UniProtKB/TrEMBL annotation:
A GO biological-process term: peptide transport
Pfam families given in the database record: SBP_bac_5
Gene3D superfamilies listed in its UniProt record: Dipeptide-binding Protein, Domain 3 (3.10.105.10), Periplasmic binding protein-like II (3.40.190.10)
Superkingdom of origin organism: Bacteria
Entry protein name: Peptide/nickel transport system substrate-binding protein
Species this protein is from: Saccharothrix carnea
Range of residues in the leader sequence: 1-22
Annotated keywords: Signal
GO MF term list: peptide transmembrane transporter activity
Domain Solute-binding protein family: start-end pairs: 72-410
GO CC term, one of those recorded: periplasmic space
């Protein structure tokens, strides 16, 4: 009978009650995992819950990404572009879904077609018109406009391929027993627990562990304590404030593609003046923020794109042509951020002091994200601190640059509308994947930085807790993988 994790309501207070058995006791090769967020959408892959299915290695995609964001084979063994608008993908033979049915081109077409009709549509398909049709053992994927990133798009966990039995008549998707990965999802207990068993019919390397017992523990202190007390083998997203309390041997830090940035309102208020934006840029001491708020567990930003993208630092050249700063001379500004990420209010306090030392007069506003996003996007603040993912679901930064910094960008908190920036981002978005595209992305980054509309301060890290008995857990900057076929207990 499977061992199951029971999460009690008082978990955050009674930490030893989070798990029914100590992780130091014999576990039969089952890995106990404490996760940050419970499912929000019933584990449908068309939502952000898809990343849970991916991190448990139960649902797989046609394409995977390497460390540089290059497309690699997954459930597709290969692909080719057959026209400006169309790509042909060859489906891997010999793969079975967890319900015993075979992976076929028709099954892939079914998943992709249902994804395009989902409400809401998967984020990776936002603004993309895509169709899929079966052609023998291949699938033809066609887009309304030429898209050089189709393979990378199909790497998104939101487009994981599930068996036909996963898709219900009411439009809901049930991933239990319908994936292709080395672990089969066999039970979900609402927002409390999930259970996965090794799938012995897996097409690739058989899982070393017997299974995964997942517990959803939103409280960061409780997750860290579960590692410290031996109630969990792996805990994701350990808070910075808790990391120092754990045995260093149980902590790993990986740079993640997330940048803590100060966005300045270029359309209204004092920061319409680029010389004042330059003054804000010069006032910021990112080293102090990393040292005092993040306890050294972050990286000072050299640009919008950080060390999680090694090619960015390697290809970046010194920035020239920057505006000289003006004297703030008491200029009054409103600095805002949100409280959902524990570090951001602390960053705001340090930043307020730095800006006041430089001559600004600062009023600070902090609210929950749900209550501040609308005002931020409407340009109602002079400055806004945001922790922002810089590679979205395709693993490519061009989408982030487009949404945050172009005239028509849907997440343009800086209200930036600059012809040079728009042209640079358009060039990057239209360039084929590879070195040329990466160079164009860095040129677009430089164009944004020259405007001083956004001042990157630091790049965050993934902090993960692993018991010393764990071998082979993934440390993934994109947070797509966590437990793989190779993950096991000593």
């Amino acid at each position: 009978m499977r061992h199951r994790i029971t999460l009690i309501a008082a978990c955050a207070l009674l930490l030893t009650g989070c798990f029914a058995q100590s992780a130091e006791e014999p576990s039969g090769g089952r890995i106990k995992l404490a996760m940050l967020q419970p499912p929000r959408s019933g584990l449908t892959p068309f939502s952000d819950d898809a990343f849970k299915l991916s991190r448990w290695s139960t649902a797989e995609t046609l394409v995977t990404l390497d460390a540089d964001g290059n497309a690699r084979p997954g459930l597709a063994t290969g692909w080719r572009r057959i026209s400006d608008h169309a790509w042909e993908f060859t489906v891997r033979p010999g793969v079975t879904f967890h319900d015993g049915t075979a992976l076929t081109a028709a099954a892939v077409t079914n998943t992709l077609t249902r994804a395009t009709a989902a409400t809401p549509k998967p984020r990776i398909l936002d603004g993309v018109e895509l169709t899929a049709e079966t052609a023998g053992d291949t699938v033809i994927v066609t887009t309304a406009t030429p898209d050089p990133l189709v393979p990378q798009r199909l790497s998104s966990p939101q487009l994981a391929i599930l068996a036909a039995s996963a898709y219900r008549a009411d439009g809901k998707v049930d991933p239990v027993g319908t994936g292709t990965g080395p672990f089969e999802l066999v039970a979900v207990n609402g927002t409390t627990t999930a259970t996965l068993d090794r799938y012995d019919g897996y097409w690739g390397e058989k899982a070393a562990a017997e299974g995964i017992d997942v517990s959803f523990v939103p409280d960061g202190t409780a997750r860290a304590a579960a590692i410290r007390g031996g109630e969990a083998h792996i805990a994701e997203a350990v808070p910075v404030s808790q990391a120092a309390l754990l045995d260093p041997a149980t902590i790993s830090e990986v740079p993640m593609p997330r940048t803590n940035t100060l966005y300045l309102n270029t359309e209204a208020g004092p920061f319409r003046d680029q010389a004042l934006r330059a003054a804000a840029r010069e006032a910021i001491d990112a080293d102090e923020i990393v040292r005092s708020v993040y306890e050294g567990r972050a990286d000072v930003a050299e640009g919008l794109l950080g060390p999680a993208l090694p090619w960015a630092a390697a290809g970046r050249t010194p920035l020239t042509g920057r505006t000289e700063p003006a004297d703030p001379n008491g200029t009054a500004i409103t600095l805002a951020t949100f409280s959902d990420r524990a570090e951001l209010p602390e960053v705001a306090s340090v930043l307020q002091q730095q800006l006041e030392d430089a001559g600004f007069t600062v009023t600070q506003v902090v609210r929950e994200y749900a209550h501040i996003e609308e005002d931020a996007l409407a340009g109602r603040f002079d400055a806004f601190i945001l922790s922002r993912a810089t590679v979205l679901d395709s693993g490519d930064p061009a989408a982030y640059l487009q949404s945050d910094f172009t005239c028509a960008g849907s997440f343009n908190i800086a209200q930036l509308c600059d012809g040079g920036v728009d042209a640079a981002v358009r060039t990057a978005a239209g360039t084929e994947a590879g070195d040329g595209r990466r160079a164009a992305i860095l040129a677009a980054e430089a164009a944004v930085l020259r405007t001083d509309a956004a001042i990157p301060m630091l790049h965050e890290r993934v902090i993960q807790g692993d018991a010393t008995s764990v071998v082979g857990s993934a440390k993934d900057p994109r947070e797509r993988t966590l437990i793989t076929s190779a993950t096991r207990l000593r």
